[in-house]
C-alpha cells in the first residue's frame, strides 16, 4: 500500500459516481500552454509507439520547439470566452447528463476529467481522489471515445487503474470500453443529419454531385496491424449511420484526418480525398466527425476551416460542416441510457425527493398512454 487514505468516517453513506473522460486541452491558446500540453500528450507511450529514447529526442529536440507556436495560433481561431471548445462542451455534457439521470431517479455524482491535464484539478487522478474523499465507493469511468483505441481509451483506463493500485480501501471500478455501435449514439448522429437535410435539402440520391463524408481521427497503420480495433470500429459506425439514413453506398465516403509525422496512417486521408472529390465534379459535401462527441480543434479548425478551404479551392461549391453531438438532447438521452446499462447491478442510491417525484410523474404519464 502506497497511498494515504482520507480519514475514515464510519456510517457515511456510500456513493456512486460517473466520470466522463476526454482527451485534454491547453490552458490557454498560447505557445507556453500548448507546449506543456503537448509534452504530456505526445510523451505518453500509448500515443506514440516508437522506441522511447529516440522519440524523446525528437519530441524535446524538435517538435516542442516548433509546433507549440503553430498550434497555439490554430487554437486561437476557435477559443471561446469560457475556454477551449472541448472543455466547454465536456462541462456542458456532464451537467446535462447529471440532470437527465436525476430525472430518471438516480442520485449520483456526475463529474468530468481530462486525460492530459498535468497535475491540475481536472486530471483523472485528481478527480478520482476527490471522489474517494466524498466516499464514492462505486465509480464508472466513461471515456468519451466511441471507437476503442489503445491511444485514447486504453490510456485513460490505464490512468484510472494505476490510481486504484495500492489503495487500502479500493472502490469498485468499472469502465465503458466503447460505444461505436450503440443504437442511441447511431440514431443521434442520424437524426442530426436528417435535421441538417431538412434545412439544406440534397438532390435525389445517389447523385454524382453530392457526398456525405464521415471523417474520423487517424491512426498509424502500424497500430492496425498490431491489432488495434479502432479502424474497424470507425467503419462499423459509418456503415450503421449510412444504413440508418438509407443512403446508397456511392453517396458515402469514410476518411481519416489529423495525420502526424511521416509514417503511413490508415487511409484515405480526409483533405486529399475532399480535393479529389472536388476535381471529380462533386459540388457539395456534408461533413461530420462521428469519432468526436464534442467539437474541438480537430473539428472546428482542421475540418471546418482547413479542409473547407481545400475543397472550395479545388472546385467544390458547397461545404457544410455538421457540428459534433455536443449537448444534443438525443445524444444526452443516449448517453444516459449507456450509463444506466453500465451501472446495472450496483446498489441503487435512493433518489432525492425532486427526482422521485419526476420519476413518478413519468411513470404516471406512461401509464396514461397505454
Automatic annotation (TrEMBL):
Alphabetic keyword roster: Cytoplasm, Heme biosynthesis, Iron, Lyase, Metal-binding, Porphyrin biosynthesis
Domain of life: Bacteria
Protein name: Ferrochelatase
NCBIfam families in alphabetical order: hemH
Binding site for Fe(2+): 217, 298
Organism: Fluviibacter phosphoraccumulans
A GO biological-process term: heme biosynthetic process
GO cellular component: cytoplasm
EC number: 4.98.1.1
Reactions catalysed according to its record: heme b + 2 H(+) = protoporphyrin IX + Fe(2+); Fe-coproporphyrin III + 2 H(+) = coproporphyrin III + Fe(2+)
Compartments, record wording: Cytoplasm
PROSITE patterns, sorted: FERROCHELATASE
Similarity-based family: Belongs to the ferrochelatase family.
Pathways per UniProt: Porphyrin-containing compound metabolism; protoheme biosynthesis; protoheme from protoporphyrin-IX: step 1/1
Function as written in the Swiss-Prot or TrEMBL entry: Catalyzes the ferrous insertion into protoporphyrin IX.
